[in-house]
Amino acid sequence: MDDAGVDGRPRDPSLAAADATDPPSGFREQAAASDADVYEAFAAEGPEAWRRAADLLDWETEYETVLDDSDPPFYKWFPGGRLNASVNCVDRHLDERRNQLAIRWFGKRGERRSYTYLDLHREVNALAAGLRDLGVEEDDVVTLYLPMVPELPISMLACARIGAPHNVVFAGLSAEALATRLDAADSSYLVTCDGYYRREDAFNQKSKADNARLRADVDLAATVVVDRLGDALDVSLGADEHGYESLVDAHDGEMVEPVARDATDLLFVMYTSGTTGRPKGVEHATGGYLSHVAWTTQNVLDVRPDDTYWCAADIGWITGHSYGVYGPLSVGTTTILYEGSPDYPDRDRVWDLIERNAVSVFYTSPTAIRSFMKWGAEYPDRHDLSSIRLLGTVGESITPKVWHWYREHVGGGEAPVVDTWWQTETGAIALATLPGIAPMKPGKAGPPLPGIDATVVDEDGEPVEPGEPGYLTIGAPWPGMLRGLREGDERYRREYWVEAEDGWRYRTGDGATVDDDGYITILGRVDDVINVRAHRFTTGELESAIVGVEGVTEAAVVGTEDGDIVAYVTTRSDVEPDESVRAAICEELATAVGEMARADRIVFTPDLPKTRSGKIMRRLLEDITRGEEFGDVSSLRNPEVVGEIESSVRDV
Ligand code: WT7
Predict the structure, then answer these.
(1) What is the pTM of this model?
(2) 438 near 23, Cβ under 8 Å?
């Protein structure tokens, strides 16, 4: 594979040249993955190579084959195998580390709670027994609508124990979004809470859940309510509603025989924004997902049992599922769960937690790092962060400037910074440098991991030349891949797959370039999905919320490189676009989508740039927003609006 880099396909990344920084030798010596042969081994062995990942797990029944690819693009990983995810994340650690901390939780009000693996085992079992008692059976989907409290991972594991797939809905999403997801997943069980703190205020989550219940078509058979706020908020429980604490108390000490699931059985569903307004229900299977997540936690994030590891992402999204819960617990480490915000009570909160807990591996998003940078290096510099051994980033591209700041001020100039590219659909990391082997290139997501057949192709599916932009695709199946969509096989095939001459290719939806060493640079989404502040939205879902506001006629949203959402809005000619319209838009976005769908800027404009066929030119708006050069606009139906929009953007 020596010179394979020239046709747009990766070559051995350990040979990377020029702009690359070698892994620090101290790191290399102790890294889980330190042998560059792993790339060649995967290339030579094909799917069989992924036995390495499956071997990290405990199987109740050994799988028959690694991969069944007889009916592409419907792939089955480790068919015939049976296992239970909660056993892999909890029970099997009891022999060696029952008294080791599994979760250290830090609440918004300075509260703390710690769970050893033994504690975790006890509560997962009690809750599993409780859920069964409420009627939850194998394959019933349980929806979890909780903030970052220990009850969230515990509920996930309790569901996994009884073979009930979970459907976590980010706590900040609206009642409407919850209702849609309850219906789409056909889920009649819900675990939520009374409320949670946002800054100083107690916020009522239960009333959002109640509201969703009224809107949803499904009938909820039982709801479990965690008491997060104690006396700060009293909620009354209806007939089929149960307090989490009393449920767990009632079943304390009971042990639930874990349900052995087929490797291909559903572990969870996670809704994510797709190219249409309706969210897609991404389904992850138990065996492949857990194998890939465990392998990457060990080999990419280099996490070991004696680490204290912190993934700052919310469990409400895939990063929190894979690397906040299943990854760290499957490898038996101690993981930090942080409910608060990074700047409360002060802007050194994160560094204070890292120092006090001797965090050794820290994984966060470039958006967060940009905020840290803005607040100033004096905050991290004030703390002893020498416990850090590895830093990771995920969710969007990290610019070299931000990368270097992170390495310098958080990593002490020494720790490897691993940029990891993946998606809700890939389940686990797909592109990244293996930190003990491959040199790092700031700003580039990195080469595909061993066994990931990622290629940047042109419109015709041909690999592009190095440096040429194209579409990022994945040619061969990988274990963490989605097993399908809740919306059915047809939608799954149509959304993601193309049949090429050399087989089926998965389309990631990202634009990318590749360099001579096979390192991939992500250029951003090529569809109508925008990634801002580590959340994924469809432009359509935001726009339809905005045009739902009285007096608004049209809207187009774009994401900026700084992670802001900018909304271009036109109003009816008799409606003055004033502060009240602005406020109504903000409110509607929060109600229809969620609190994190805040528009950072709303630009009123008499018209939106359109093609002759009437399609809104969102790309042009992106260029204008970013102050970039744009081409000839004379072919637009309304070229005159471009100048107007440019000047209003500058005025805001
Ligand atoms: C999209 C997936 C699973 C990560 C959390 C987001 C973008 C992800 C990177 C990266 C550049 C990245 C892509 C991808 N993305 N990681 N390291 N560099 N872009 O999961 O919500 O499913 O979004 O996030 O555009 O397609 P998601």
Answers:
(1) 0.90
(2) yes
Q: Is 276 part of any domain?
A: no
Q: Is the residue at 122 inside a domain?
A: yes
CB 597 within 8 A of CB 563: no
- Ligand 1 centre from 365 Cα, in Å? 10
The confidence score (pLDDT) of residue 18 equals 54
Instruction: In whole angstroms, give the CA distance from residue 313 to residue 318.
Output: 9
Whole-angstrom distance, CA of residue 235 vs CA of residue 232: 10
Residues in the chain, total:
652
525 CB near ligand 1 (under 6 Å): yes
H helices then E strands: how many in the chain?
Answer: 22, 31
E strand or H helix at 403, and its extent?
helix 400-409
pLDDT for 179-200, tens place per residue? 999 999 999 999 999 999 987 7
Of 259, 292, 317, the residue at which a domain comes to its end is 259
Q: Token digits for 173?
A: 């999403």
Phi-psi region of 427 (alpha: psi -120 to 50; beta: other; left: phi over 0): left
| Token reading at 534 | 């580590």
Pairing, β 222-226 against β 189-193: parallel
CB of 8 within 6 A of ligand 1: the answer is no
Number of domains in the chain: 2
Question: Would the CB of 445 count as within 6 Å of ligand 1?
Answer: yes
465 CB neighbour count, 10 Å cutoff: 15
| 322 CA closest ligand 1 atom index | 3
Last residue of a domain, one of 208, 227, 259: 259
Cβ–Cβ under 8 Å, residues 160 and 267:
yes
- Within a domain: residue 265? no
Residue 485 lies in a domain: no
pLDDT at 641: 85
- Closest residue by Cα to atom 20, ligand 1, is 423
d(CA 198, CA 196): 7
Query: Could you tell me if 116 and 101 are in contact, meaning their C-beta atoms sit under 8 angstroms apart?
Result: yes
CB of residue 522 inside a 6 A radius of ligand 1: yes
User: Which residue is associated with the tokens 């809207």?
Assistant: 555
CATH of the domain at 553: 3.30.300.30
Distance from Cα 524 to the centre of ligand 1, integer Å: 9
Domain limits for position 594: 528-651
CA angle 323/384/419 to nearest 5° reads 35
Ligand 1 atom 17: residue of nearest CA = 421
Contacts of 595 (CB under 8 A, 6+ apart): 172, 174
Give the side-chain half-sphere CA count within 13 A for 479.
Answer: 30
Residue from 370, 422, 537 whose mutation best tests the ligand 1 pocket (most atoms within 8 A of CB): 422
CA-318 nearest atom, ligand 1: 3
Reading the block at residue 273, the tokens are 């924004």
Domain containing residue 91: CATH number: 3.40.50.980
Do 44 and 317 form a contact (C-beta atoms < 8 A)? no
Convert the pLDDT of each residue in 318-341 to its tens digit.
999 999 999 999 999 999 999 999
Confirm or reject: Cβ of 395 under 6 Å from ligand 1.
Answer: yes
Taken in order 389, 393, 399, 402, is the CA torsion positive or negative? negative
Q: Is 300 in the pocket of ligand 1 (CB under 6 A)?
A: no
* SS3 state of residue 474: strand
pLDDT given at position 2? 39
Residues of the chain scoring pLDDT < 50: 1-9
